[in-house]
Design brief:
The structure is a homotrimer of 396-residue chains.
Chain A lengths: L3 H9 L18 H19 L11 E6 L5 H13 L2 E4 L13 H7 L4 E7 L7 H17 L8 E4 L7 H14 L10 E6 L10 H10 L5 E5 L8 H14 L2 E5 L2 H5 L4 E5 L4 H12 L3 H15 L9 H4 L8 E2 L19 H16 L1 H13 L3 H11 L7
Parallel strand pairs in A: 1-2, 1-3, 3-4, 5-6, 5-8, 6-7, 8-9
Helix pairs in contact in A: 1-2, 1-15, 2-14, 2-15, 3-14, 4-5, 6-7, 6-13, 6-14, 7-8, 10-11
Chain lengths: 396, 396, 396
Amino acid sequence: MKSFNQITEAIQQLKSNLHQNDFLLTWEKTEDELKQTLLVAEALKFLRDHNISTKVFDSGLAISNFRDNSTRTRFSFASACNLLGLEVQDLDEGKSQIAHGETVRETANMISFLTDIIGIRDDMFLGEGHTYMKEVGDALDDGFKHGVLPQRPGIVNLQCDIDHPTQAMADLMHLADYYGGLENLKGKKIAMTWAYSPSYGKPLSVPQGIIGLMTRFGMEVDLAYPEGYNLISDVVDLAGKNAAASGGKFRVVNSMDEAFRDADIVYPKSWAPFSVMQRRTPLLHNNDTAGLKALEQECLANNARFKDWECTEEKMKLTKEGKALYMHCLPADISGVSCKEGEVAESVFERYRIETYKEAGFKPYIIAAMIFNNKFKDAAGVLNKLNERGLKRILG
Amino acid sequence: MKSFNQITEAIQQLKSNLHQNDFLLTWEKTEDELKQTLLVAEALKFLRDHNISTKVFDSGLAISNFRDNSTRTRFSFASACNLLGLEVQDLDEGKSQIAHGETVRETANMISFLTDIIGIRDDMFLGEGHTYMKEVGDALDDGFKHGVLPQRPGIVNLQCDIDHPTQAMADLMHLADYYGGLENLKGKKIAMTWAYSPSYGKPLSVPQGIIGLMTRFGMEVDLAYPEGYNLISDVVDLAGKNAAASGGKFRVVNSMDEAFRDADIVYPKSWAPFSVMQRRTPLLHNNDTAGLKALEQECLANNARFKDWECTEEKMKLTKEGKALYMHCLPADISGVSCKEGEVAESVFERYRIETYKEAGFKPYIIAAMIFNNKFKDAAGVLNKLNERGLKRILG
Amino acid sequence: MKSFNQITEAIQQLKSNLHQNDFLLTWEKTEDELKQTLLVAEALKFLRDHNISTKVFDSGLAISNFRDNSTRTRFSFASACNLLGLEVQDLDEGKSQIAHGETVRETANMISFLTDIIGIRDDMFLGEGHTYMKEVGDALDDGFKHGVLPQRPGIVNLQCDIDHPTQAMADLMHLADYYGGLENLKGKKIAMTWAYSPSYGKPLSVPQGIIGLMTRFGMEVDLAYPEGYNLISDVVDLAGKNAAASGGKFRVVNSMDEAFRDADIVYPKSWAPFSVMQRRTPLLHNNDTAGLKALEQECLANNARFKDWECTEEKMKLTKEGKALYMHCLPADISGVSCKEGEVAESVFERYRIETYKEAGFKPYIIAAMIFNNKFKDAAGVLNKLNERGLKRILG
């Protein structure tokens, strides 16, 4: 395990421009910036594990804007903010006047007078989540420039239609932890594959986030799905370019078996085809219940043709020494547990259950690191100050 | 800009009795008390702008009780409480057992054992909001007197049926800031005028709050509305008396043009006629959907007769050098933006948009000042302590 | 009144195993442990009353999981957590993905990465609330053991189907305060009796909590109810054994008058018969609205046979010198006030109203003490540190 000083010294070696920049897509960040995010997360975890306070804010608000349901991301965001000293205020669009036609521009400013960070989840509408976050960002720039806001609140993408950076980065941190270092991921094969689920409409952001990020670190990434279950093509193109640049590999296959073969890591997860998500957006906007129901039926019928895309013990035997690490963003559709037939066999899931919990456990620190880097130019310096201050998190 | 010492010295010159007194109506407060509220708000803003912690509470709850929807006031209250170190707990009457017939007296005590402040918004029911706040206050007095409560939580009116003191005081702070001092408002003409909106039932508390407060500082206040769109007559009478006492002027006119003529400041905003609000209260109580719908139709039809009550470029030309400051509590009904025809033309709003945002930005500090003055007898002394303590709000 | 040192010295005399143990049922705790809970509550109250900060957590989350409506327990929990420095996050099962079939095991871990305490209210379903809390506890043990959680969050039962320990302990603290010491309760007669209410389905946990706890301290406990309104028989058996062990008395009678005769304390409160609660659980699970309605009608009709089970002035005359202390967990069904005919006559309630408020006021401290003892092995030592640290709760 690295010492605290090793972590902060490693941060000081990096060139990064995270300060005052929103964290929306991992591919907008340099390799150094991604590394710094991991290192700051590690440093914050180190301090908390040693009962040292990481409260850098004496007061300040963090706004959470969840435009879709969430348990784990909601609690991860709350945990991250609390860890740094920010108080979360939910912008519940049901309760608020936003539903009554306020413009994004105005609301973004109205909630930000004493706000340091805004976390947004907006993954339901293809083509809109990321755009919305940029709109909020522009509004905040405008307000800050004109003296409306005494600070420019940072934005953290808690899942959009394109990427899910807090998930993908937590997954990366888990892998670095599991394999003893980011450098050890080079050459490891990861299979990001579609899996059957008796539900539909799951966002594309997790698989996109995974192929967009893991290709940055020299990994061999296989994306597998049944014909027709495409992702956004720009992201797929980008994954190819990333792999080429990092000395890794990237390919798309239409067979789960092929992707699993010799894989070090498997990530079997359901998603809806891009074309379905495209057709779904206007239906959602129009509250077209009948149209949504029809689309769901059609999609479920199509899904049902691919029930063999399940992460079974048999398929696991295809992986490297039959021992690939199973990953999932949770909750998984576990056959015979949470559904009749699903993404993963019960025995496989159960064997890796604790690992998937640990995987999820990195998310609060990743989010805290994103906030930290957004607010502090000299991240290493502030971390050292926290360590020297040595305030106890719990008295005793 | 005043130095911090100038602010606290100015506070020390004032005679005020804000300590342990609820802030329900501006006209229950002396001129010195209103000034102290502005000065404390200024001091808190100064400290935060200089990254100095204003946390006076190490722990303690602030209860928010919103009996009507709200975004900006909700976030302003949350910001103010957080700035001082109080944690907001929402008293959501849907979730709680209050809906099941508990008396105000009991609930007020049950939520207040460790509570320092209660913010209430109750503006829907004419004749009831202010009454409810006083009832809560009486219950808290009773609980404190009998040793149930170790402290008497203060109450801040976050909008009632009569006044909207946090809005009006933030507006006043904005004007003092804009014109370089409260003393410079003397003789300035402000037009508080009704404006057309394709909605109905907007509370009377903003225009009442404005005429009740701005007449205290020697301003020339014109209240303008189409015949029938009266406010509560007691408040109108009071505005007249205020003006007489402060060396200002107050008159009621039935023409937007007349009010705009030579105005330094215009505040065009829709509200429902007093008589409509009176008829609406029993309908709301009885959940009389049909009755409410009928009243809405009648009221909208009546509104439609006054579509020319819009703050257009043409009307703005009537004002002092055509350059009056436009004010609004937001959100405004902007013609061609948030509605087809509304309170204000797009180009006028857009020119003053940033100013209206700044106007709103004073509210968190005004609310914080109201809380501060309620809890500390020696406000200037405590502010000086904060400055001397010099804790950073953000580490770095 | 005890000095602070007397309190912490008394704690040091006790043998207790509260550290890292959930507080689910008072009868799982030893007499020393119950005493320590009262003493720590007293110490925390002492410190706050002397404006000394009791913040032992610099950061950390407290999760509240309310599976039934609540005002007073919700605010008591929020107050307790805030008093110690924990931030409450509500696990609202409507908003979260829990409703979508996640297992308890997974969710318990997902919300707990940076969580110090979890408060759960689950009192609707007979046979399930307590079981659910143990399930959550097992999941947390599992996560902590396997390194998923850096700490094992403690659980506080905020009311289950069997016991309501925060209520019963607050009631005990009130009695100890009222009679000048726990030792003075020996030999006092308390009548825990059913009372008429025009509602049905009220949980059994309050009467069960009272007979399960008050029999521990040598009190003479009468449980009274109309035939058929039985409690869970295991708890009744336990109350008998407790009384035998503590030198007290316990009996069940079917007459309110008999229970009131010579009572020092009366606690008249409605509840639903055990058999009704049993029949209700599957109806609730099946959302069987018609079945629930029919059961309600049947139960209300049965209740109506016992309208004379009301705590009237006449009945109060039967008590010791006619001056028994009236207790209630609130809100009470007050005849002529909150309902036509109810649990208690208005004049009786009004005479003891302030006492019932004080009774409720102990709950935040009791909950804080339960959290405190769960997290700190050397409770007395940490309390002394807080006193020596001497941070002010409110500056000034």
